[in-house]
Amino acid sequence: MPDQPPSPAETATRVWAAMQAFVTSQDRNRELREAFDFGRKLVTLTSAGRDAAALAKQIMARPPTALTQLDPGDLAALDKILGRLHDERAAAKGVH
């Protein structure tokens, strides 16, 4: 008997596992720890503190290299899919 293509549920499970593995591998917290000394307990809003906060925002907002290197068509498809998932989640929560 020829191999059967995976069911939609099997494909969704495989994609979900791949997404989780990808997100986990992009350890932005490690990058933040390397950029800042988190041993301090008190942060003041000095000029250096504002600069540090801005840098932290930049690190967290920057997409992983693997994502920016996707083929534009693949990236557009992923954007469409994630947008649809977000819309469905918001609708389920009653958010517009």
How would you describe this structure to a colleague?
This protein has helices spanning 8-25, 28-35, 47-61, 65-68, 72-93. With 96 residues, it is mostly helical. The protein has a domain at 65-96. The longest helix has 22 residues, at 72-93. The relative contact order is 0.06.
Topology:
Elements (H helix, E strand, L loop, with lengths): L7 H18 L2 H8 L11 H15 L3 H4 L3 H22 L3
**Shape label:** elongated
Structural class by secondary-structure content: mainly alpha
* Structure summary, number of beta strands: 0
**Low confidence ranges:** none
Mean pLDDT, all residues: 80
Radius of gyration: 19 Å
How would you characterize the largest beta sheet?
A: none
The helix/strand series, from N terminus to C terminus, equals: HHHHH
- Tell me the distance between the termini: 48 Å
Strand content: under 5%
Quaternary assembly? single chain
Q: Helix content range of the residues, please?
A: 55-70%
Number of helices: 5
